[in-house]
Design goal:
The chain is mostly helical and about 500 residues long. A hairpin with a 2-residue loop joins strand 3 and strand 4. It has a single domain, classed as Amino acid/polyamine transporter I (Up-down Bundle), CATH 1.20.1740. Helix 3 runs antiparallel to helix 9, helix 4 packs across helix 16 and helix 5 runs antiparallel to helix 13. The chain has 18 helices and five strands. It is a multi-pass membrane protein.
């Protein structure tokens, strides 16, 4: 027996289907808070600094403030939706309920691209740190990538509860490293000399030996071009709702954890921007660094001590790598459980209830993309590879945020009567502000001649995924909790009521 709706067809599955796809609840508020920070904290270690070359210190600062405001708006909207729809599908679940199967898959696919590539970028930046610490040649970076994914998958085999504990411990250590850097950098700060040492030249940013340059060396355009790198300082915090079916009390804790996470990340982002740029050798050098925090420690302590401290700093990148990889697995798990991806990918471990197949699939996709970008030009230009990956991630993230904000607005209208344990204090204004900032960020990605091809590459991936759904998977869906909730108008499929 099959049932169809909105151009899709549902297949009938037996009780055993869902028995093979179960998760365990074990995460409280503090765990969720640290998971939210851990998913992003690598963005304070590497990747963001390329924005200094795009907009100078002032341009990057304004970009970070604009994007930070956008994420506050987004987290408030997501917090309301995650409390009302506490499914592990996260963004896909929100859009599926508000925008139908096509809207659900379109949003889930955008998140899939983002969550596959975000830990891949973190692994790339982490390998750059590890190569600097251990003195391995740049040509050996792919070996670090393989080793990282092997460790992550090995950890997942022990169960998600243990994996989450590891992420929490590592995240706390990563935050401590950043705060330590802020404190030891204070005696070396000379803001006007170092943070403002970027000037505009015909061929790009020029170093000003005595500093005291303009706040906006590239004008308003520089601010706009720095937006994608501001995004990287906060990107992936929105993955937190993917843990809803593993949270002890998602309707209460998820909104709180989202807001606590973004406030923490904004404070860390402003601190790392100010202190990294305000010490020798300043913003110009940081704008092209592959490991900015390591370079900051080198400036303060010299090369020997810097390597020791950087080995601890790798924890920040590891936290985001692990958290992002698990999010990628949960995204694939939820889309697979509902039939948007091959259903075999959502089978969980009999003992640990861990979606190992989904994790392995996301890891394989990430490694493939790392190798493709590496051989397309990253091998000879580390800064280019980092920027290319960040630009692809930002493109997918912006598409996802726009769709989630539209879903929020639609849910407010179509499902006005469903229980909302948390209501966004910014309401519809927050959703409209998110959409506007995302559109501007997307548009300016295509103004950058170096990274526009990254956005195009992400768009091609997106188009291939949509074609796969249109011509094949839309006739093989399953009434998972997210689908049942949407099809029944919210009367069925609520994990907490039926758990």
């Amino acid at each position: 027996m099959e049932r169809g709706t909105a151009g899709v067809t549902y297949q009938t599955v037996d009780k055993q289907y869902f028995e093979q796809r179960q998760l365990q609840r074990h995460a409280g508020l503090f765990s969720l808070w640290m998971m939210g920070v851990g998913a992003v904290v690598a963005g304070e270690y590497s990747g963001w600094n390329i924005g200094l070359a795009q907009g100078g210190f002032g341009g990057m600062l304004l970009a970070a403030l604009i994007i930070g405001f956008m994420y506050i708006c987004l987290c408030c909207s997501i917090g309301e939706m995650s409390a009302a729809l506490p499914h592990t599908g996260g963004a896909y679940s929100f859009s599926r309920t508000a925008l139908g199967p096509w809207g659900g898959f379109t949003t889930g696919l955008a998140e899939n691209i983002e969550f596959v590539l975000a830990p891949a970028a973190n692994m790339f930046f982490m390998s750059s740190y590890l190569a600097a610490i251990f003195g391995t040649p740049q040509s050996a970076l792919p070996l670090w990538w393989v080793a990282g994914y092997v460790v992550m998958l090995g950890l997942s085999l022990r169960g998600l509860e243990l994996s989450m504990k590891v992420v929490i411990y590592v995240t706390v250590a990563a935050i401590a490293v950043l705060v330590f850097f802020f404190v030891v950098a204070i005696p070396h700060v000379d803001f006007f000399r170092y943070a403002l040492n970027i000037g505009a030249a015909a061929d790009g940013p020029a170093a000003l030996a005595d500093g005291n340059g303009p706040w906006l060396p590239f004008g308003f355009t520089g601010v706009m071009l720095a937006l994608p790198f501001g995004v990287y300082m906060f990107l992936a915090v929105e993955q937190l709702p993917l843990t809803a079916e593993e949270a002890k009390n998602p309707t209460r804790d998820m909104p709180r954890a989202l807001i606590l996470s973004i406030v923490t990340l904004i404070a860390l982002a402003l601190g790392v921007l100010f202190f990294s740029a305000s010490i020798p050798h300043g913003a110009h050098a940081m704008g092209s660094s592959g490991e900015p925090l390591l370079d900051g420690f080198r400036t303060i302590f010299g090369d020997g001590w810097a390597k020791l401290l950087a080995s601890v700093a790798v924890l920040g990148l590891a936290a985001s790598f692990f958290a992002g990889s698990f999010a990628s697995g949960r995204n694939i798990y939820s889309l697979s459980r509902a039939g948007y991806l091959p259903t075999a990918l959502s089978v969980t471990g009999a003992r640990t209830k861990t979606p190992n197949r989904a994790l392995a699939t996301g890891s394989a996709m990430a490694l493939l993309m790392l190798l493709v970008v590496w051989y397309l030009g990253g091998e000879n230009n580390v800064a280019f590879m980092g920027g290319f990956l960040v630009s692809m991630i930002v493109f997918a993230g912006m598409v996802s945020y726009i769709l989630q904000s539209i879903a929020y607005l639609r849910l407010r209208t179509l499902y006005a009567s469903i229980a909302r344990p948390f209501a966004s204090p910014l309401g519809k204004f927050g959703a409209y502000a998110t959409i506007l900032i995302c559109i501007v960020t997307l548009a300016y990605q295509f103004f950058d001649p170096l990274y526009r091809w990254a956005a195009i590459a992400a768009a091609v991936w997106y188009a291939i995924g949509l074609a796969y759904f249109a011509f094949y998977r839309r006739h093989r869906l399953v009434l998972s909790p997210e689908e049942e909730f949407a099809v029944s108008g919210g009367s069925l499929g609520h994990p907490e009521r039926e758990g």
